[in-house]
Amino acid sequence: MDDKQTSLLLIDDDEVDVMTVKRAFKKNNITNPLYVATNGIEALAMLRGNEMPKLLLGQRRLLLLDLNMPRMGGIEFLRELRADPELRALPVIVLTTSNEDKDKVEAYDLNVAGYIIKPVTFTKFVEAIGTLNKYWALSELP
């Protein structure tokens, strides 16, 4: 297996957005393993291995996080993640519709690696995911 292989965890409750991400991955020929959690609680359970197998422990991981979700939203998830000694170093890129300055400031205060506003058109979304793919392929992730 390629030692640069990165497993991705998409944390998003919107089924249409999840399908759009999957379609954009396919358009960009991105074959990285993609896991989906529908809220922050489910994502933490996956990462900690509480309810499901631990998400590929020991491999490079990158989290794609929506902010607007039920049960545990993105900012609350980031607070929990950064408070966990085993998970705090995981890189997170916010992928959201929120263009609120408050959300951007809070996200960056919680050490996100990037903040991307979901483009409206599919073509622009595919371009954004392609750029993101280049970024994580070049990045030194923990």
Task: Give a description of the structure.
With 142 residues, the protein is α/β, with parallel strands linked by helices. The protein has one domain: Response regulator (Rossmann fold). It is built from 5 helices and 5 strands; from the N terminus they run βαβαβαβαβα. A 5-stranded parallel sheet has the order 2-1-3-4-5, sandwiched between helices. It is globular, with a radius of gyration of 14 Å. It starts with 5 loop residues before the first strand and ends with a helix. The model has no long low-confidence stretch (mean pLDDT 87).
Query: Mean pLDDT across all residues, rounded?
Result: 87
Number of discrete helical segments? 5
**What characteristic shape results from the CA principal axes?**
globular
- The H/E string reads EHEHEHEHEH
> Strand-residue fraction?
15-25%
Strand order of the largest sheet: 2-1-3-4-5
Q: What portion of residues is helical? A: 40-55%
Radius of gyration: 14 Å
Distance between the termini: 17 Å
Structural class: alpha/beta
Q: What's the oligomerization state?
A: single chain
